[in-house]
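Technical annex B. To support the medicinal chemistry partners, we prepared a structural model of the target in complex with iron/sulfur cluster, based solely on the information shown next.
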Amino acid sequence: MASSSDSPRVRQVRPATEGWTQKKDAEGRPLLQFASPKRGKPPVHLADLTPDERQTKVKDLGMPGFRAKQLEKHYFTHYTNDAAAMTDLPASGREELVAGMLPHLLTEVKRLETDRGDTIKFLWKLHDGALVESVLMRYPGRITLCVSSQAGCGMNCPFCATGQAGLTRNMSAAEIIEQVVRANRLIAEGGLGDPRKLGHEGERVTNIVFMGMGEPLANYARVMQAVRVMTDKKNGMGMSARGITVSTVGLVPAITKLANEDIPVTFALSLHAPDDELRDELIPVNSRWKVDEALDAARAYFEKTGRRVSIEYALIKDMNDHGWRADLLGDKLNERGRGWVHVNPIPLNPTPGSIWTSSDQATQDEFVRRLEAKGIPTTLRDTRGKEIDGACGQLVATEDDERVAAETPPE
Ligand code: SF4
C-alpha cells in the first residue's frame, strides 16, 4: 500500500512484544479482559457516593446530614482527611465520622521528580497492595495530572508495560479522585514550586488526563462518577469539564455512551494506525471494533457534544510513521467532515535496539506536514514523565517498586 512518494524508505516493522509473552485467547488472538477480576473492594468513600448518599451515610454514622457538606469542603477544597484539622466538626464522634467517610485509600510508595521539578511521578499502593501511578506536570498556564483508572489493564497492547500483567482490578471512583486530591495537597504545600514565590497562591490541578494505567472506558461507571465529582461545582471539585480528557483505545459502545452523558469532557481516541492490518496487531481491541467504527464513534461524539475530538498517534519508527499512513489518516478524517478533530502525533522516546523507538525528526515533520496539507490541525505532543507514550499506560511498577511497596506501611 506504500505510495511511490514514500520511497526510498518503505521499511515496515511489525509490532511484537519484547521481553515478555503476550497472553492469547483460545483462538490464538491477544487476550482481551473487559471484566475486572473479583478482588476485595476498597472501602466506600465520600467520593464514591452522590451528595444524597453522603448525607444518608453521615446520618448512619450518627451525625446530622449537613456534616456531609463540611466533609466535602475539607476534602475537595482543603485536600485533607485529617480529623484533627476539622475543628468545625464536634470533637465527640469526629474521628469515627472521618474514618467512615474519608477512609485511607492511597499510600505513597515513591515519588520521582524530573524536568527540574516540573514533573512528578507518584507510585501509589492501594488497600490490597495493587500499585498504580500518576504523573503531575506543570506547563505554562496549567497543571495537568495524568491519572490511572485501573490497576493494570486488560487491553494487552504489545508496546505497553501496563498491559503485560493484565488487569488486576478496576479502581474505585474515590481511588481516582484521591490521586487528584493528593496532587492538589502537594501543590498547596509547595511541592511543585513555592506558590508564593511563583505568585501562584491557591493554584491546583487544572487539567486531568485519563492516560495513566488502564483503559478508562473499560471501567466506565467509576470513571464517570469520578468525572462527576471533578466537575461538580456545588458538592465536588468544581473543575471545568473541558479540562478533563477521557481517552480510549476504541471501545465503541462506551464512546457512544460517553457522548450521551451531559458532561462535555474532551474525548481522545488513541488510534496509532489508520489501517486495520497494522492496528489489529498494535491495538488488539481493534479485532473487536475496527478503525472505521472507532472513527465513526469519535465523529458522533463531536456531533453530540460540539467538542473537538483528539486523535492520539504515537509515532513509532518504521512501524506506523509512513507518509502514506499520514495521508490515509487525513483522508479518513476528512471523509467524516471538517473542523471536528485534531491529531496529536506523539514521538516515542529513543530506545536504541528496540523496535519501539522514535521516528526520526524528518519523518515526524513529514507526518505532520502531510496531515496539515490535508487541512487537519496537528500538534506534535511531548511525552513528559513517560517512557513510551501510547496516550495511556506505559506506567508500571518495577520489581524494585514492588519491593519498596511491600516494605511501605499504610499511611
Ligand atoms: S496502551 Fe493503554 S489500553 Fe493498551 S494495554 Fe496499555 S494501558 Fe491498556
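Notes passed to the chemistry partners:
The chain is about 30% helix and 15% strand.
The CA atoms of residues 260 and 304 lie 7 Å apart.
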